[in-house]
Description:
Helix 7 links the parallel strand 3 (118-123) and strand 4 (139-144). This protein has two domains: 6-45 and 295-380, Alpha-Beta Complex (Aspartate Aminotransferase, domain 1); 48-283, Aspartate Aminotransferase, domain 2 (3-Layer(aba) Sandwich), CATH 3.40.640.10. The two termini are 42 Å apart. It is an alpha/beta fold. The longest helix has 28 residues, at 372-399. 44% of the residues lie in helices and 14% in strands. The protein is globular and about 70 Å long. The protein binds pyridoxal-5'-phosphate.
Amino acid sequence: MRYSALTQRIAGDGAAAWQIHDRALELRAQGVDVLLLSIGDPDFDTPRPIVQAAIDSLLAGDTHYPEVRGSAGLRNSIARRHRQRSGQVVEAEHVIVFPGAQCAVYSVVQCLLDPGDEVIVAEPMYVTYEGVIGACAATVVAVPVRPENGFRVDPADVAARITPKTRAILLNSPNNPSGASLSLPIWQALAELCIRHDLWLISDEVYSDLLFEGEHISPASLPGMAERTATINSLSKSHAMSGWRVGWVIGPKPMADHLVNLSLSMLFGIPDFVQNAAQLALDHDLPEVASMREEYRQRRDLVCSSLGQCPGLRPVRPDGGMFVMVDVRQTGLSAQHFAERLLEGYGVSVLAGEAFGPSAAGYIRIGLVVDQTRLADACRRMALCAAGLLISQVTLAVTQPSGAVSRGCRSKLAREGR
Ligand SMILES: Cc1ncc(COP(=O)(O)O)c(C=O)c1O
């Protein structure tokens, strides 16, 4: 039977990235002690008052069709919170609720892009962007970001990629995978480009509450940007609510109206009992949320300080988010082979940077998603893995100084991609 061309466009490399994670789950099911640091799912429970609000709402009978654009109460809470944090003047009419930021990004690009349009995206990038943009038959134009710039996008590199086909710039700050957050001067330069070339800006801000250094900038708050920016956020990371599927878009009124039409043909909104719980989450400064943020910060510090002292490993300190990128090139292995060796030999599952784009080749991404005791254990295992590789490099150099590597050894090295 025949499937649509779209099925090809959404089956990109993003899907393959998770193979190592699947293997880790398989090993775990066999009873192997595996530390799973390959996903970005918070390990905390959703704070109790939020769960209670959902239970109360269910018992009160909030189980019917919801308002497609999201309940007025939740949209008001989202608008108020965004106003307080960004200074941008928005009202409930600018907000559309979606089941998670993922669906929000998908819906926004469906409303902004036509086949053949180009979207400039900083690379390394969140793995699903390619499929999401591909679904519109639009093209991703990657802007490589340099590790020596802390993985921060350079507006001059963006400017160099703008063509008559460019329709939008899609950016994610703080970033997955790198944790880099963009400063005000960078955003101002990018805003200037958007205005000059009449481009949309799609700003994925799902890690905005997990920023540890500096101030989060919502670019829609800059002059001239509100009418050309879709701001996307969710409760998945900040409130440990990934399974609840609550996200949203804030955009100009006409964009919001188009998004409602899309939601009408695709979703019909999200359940009212979930929305009521989400509203409570936004209306209260829950202490659990503050302590989760503090715990992520401590985990980041732990990983950076312990791996920072390990020969062969160089962590890049992230500004925020739930991940740390670590340069493993000194071990002589590609990141993919390092990750495979780390999983099979030491029981730690991480993703190879290549999964997020070629500029992250040689880096692994560590998720800060286990407690500090287990994270310290994972760091010890990574150090052992790297040390073993460095020792074998030295042994090789000493025993085979002329470069006459034995055949068995050579094929082992080839298998590991060295
Ligand atoms: C950068 C980025 N955007 C969007 C999402 C999707 O988040 P949500 O759970 O709100 O759909 C994720 C999830 O990992 C992410 O890392």
